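mind reviewing this stuff:

——
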Amino acid sequence: MRFLPWLRRLLRLSAHRERALVEKALDGDSIRLVDGREVRYLGIDAPENQDPNHPEWRWAQRAHDVNTRLVAGRRVLLLREQSDRDRYGRLLRHVYVGRTWVNGALVAKGLARAQAYPPDDARAAELARLEARARRRRRGLWGQRSRGLWGQRSRGLWGQRSRGLWSQRLRGLWGWSRRSR
């Protein structure tokens, strides 16, 4: 009788998963399936701006391009948490292509930020760790020298404002750092 709790868990999980074919990526954090349904990735927020003069536009385009390369025309696994749809009628899901967790891949590349939306926050801590690593490694939008997206000022080496590309390269060539003083 020990297998009954395990069997219940397995049946509950299978009710929250489905396979689907992706038609196209709509932006950095949503896709359209071949059957016409739209899916919003759970736990992340990618830049979204259609104005090419806006500083966020470049990162919105890059997030869209990477999302397209990851999922367009592929069969994906969609995993639901608590909520089924958002207020716009889109499915709320974690998306997998093979063994790649697309939500996490976009955050790890610095193309989206972790954003917990309770009650669908089972993987919020994992996404926050991926974002922290992307920030430390200055990946994607966290590597900008200008004012960062979402109102956060981006810093140069050692938490200081960036002094320009050439000074950073010279420091790297000479091995100079604040720690070596």
About this structure: Residues 152-181 have pLDDT under 50 and may be disordered. The chain has two domains: 3-143, 144-181.
